[in-house]
Write a structure and sequence with these properties.
The protein is an all-alpha fold and 319 residues long. The protein contains 20 helices and no strands. Among the domains are: 77 residues, Orthogonal Bundle (Annexin V, domain 1), CATH 1.10.220; 70 residues, Annexin (Annexin V, domain 1). α9 packs antiparallel against α10 and α16 crosses α18. It is elongated and about 70 Å long.
């Protein structure tokens, strides 16, 4: 794989002025009716840090909570999207994890998408936010909602065991052979070895291991996992493998999944577009078009409507 060059679609606005934006937002929400377009124009073209500055100005100037005002003026999926934009990134993802585990049943897809795609620093920020917001450790809540090897893998990730940045080319072949011995060469699979290597090693090291795996066995690591694993554990391991090789391809496929078939999985659509907009949504957009021969923007336009659609398209950054 070539070096991954993340291209954001949302960057800090040049010449940013929090008070000007704050006044404009207050004007957009005062009196009869709401000027949704003004809200979209401001909030989708500012970085999250700049949005936090606007919120601080809003409180200092008007003695009001900007998020609460927006919430009372907006509704539906458009409101969900704007709320997602206004929360600090780690707080937003912590809330999404909590929602995935709250109530009856657990949304394992969301746990995998958020936790298996992050580096240690990002995981730590989410873990800290989770405990601050919900007064409960993320690992503990997750352990009560998941089980087996899937639980063990997620727990390793959440406890931050990954050796980010460390690379040992000499060890990669040996680790590839360990994976081979624990999977295809064994009756039954030793998931613990897969869990340990996939959760501990840096993405750079895993890339080397996967290349060596192909050299040693003649099969890709994905083929090996698909023949040895199943269910959410397989989904989690494939997510790690894909993010090692191309995060953009992983998220492009998730976006496609969110929009295919009857009905749209709006929470997933919002979460990926908001949380990746300042990281690599530009790269994801190119990958989406390569994989599906259709622009992400046109796919989103087909699936959404109104202010919700306009705000999503603004975040994607047009064609």
């Amino acid at each position: 794989m070539t070096d991954y060059l993340p291209e954001p679609t949302v960057r800090p606005a040049p010449g940013f002025n929090a008070s000007e934006d704050g006044v404009a937002l207050r004007t957009a929400m005062k009196g009869f009716g709401t000027d949704e377009q003004a809200i979209i124009d401001i909030l989708t073209h500012r970085s999250n840090e700049q949005r936090q500055e606007i919120a601080k100005f809003f409180t200092a100037e008007y003695g009001r909570n900007l998020m609460e005002d927006l919430e009372s003026e907006l509704s539906g999926k458009f409101e969900d999207l704007i709320m997602a934009l206004m929360l600090p990134p780690a707080d937003y993802l912590a809330k999404e994890l909590n929602r995935a585990m709250d109530g009856l049943g657990t949304d394992e897809h969301t746990l995998v998408e958020i936790l298996c795609t992050k580096n240690n620093k990002e995981i730590q920020e989410i873990v800290d936010a989770y405990e601050r917001l919900f007064d409960r450790p993320l690992a503990e809540h997750m352990c009560s909602e998941t089980s087996g090897d899937f639980r063990r893998l997620l727990t390793l990730i959440v406890t931050g065991v990954r050796n980010d940045g460390s690379v040992d080319p000499g060890k990669a072949r040996e680790q590839a052979e360990q994976l081979h011995a624990s999977g295809e060469l064994k009756v039954g699979t030793d998931e613990e070895v897969f869990n340990r290597i996939l959760s501990h090693e840096s993405h750079q090291q895993l890339r080397l291991i996967f290349t060596e795996y192909k050299n040693v066995t003649g099969r890709s690591i994905e083929q090996a996992l698909e023949s040895e694993m199943s269910g959410e554990l397989l989904e989690a391991m494939l997510a790690i493998v894909e993010c090692v090789q191309s995060p953009a391809a992983y998220f492009a496929k998730r976006l496609h999944w969110a929009m295919e078939g009857m009905g749209t999985r709006d929470r997933t659509l919002i979460r990926i577009i908001v949380s990746r907009s300042e990281i690599d949504l530009g790269t994801i957009k190119h990958e989406y078009e390569r994989l599906y021969d259709k622009t992400l923007e046109s796919a989103v336009k087909d699936e959404t409507s109104g202010d919700y659609k306009h705000a999503l398209v603004a975040l994607i950054g047009g064609p």
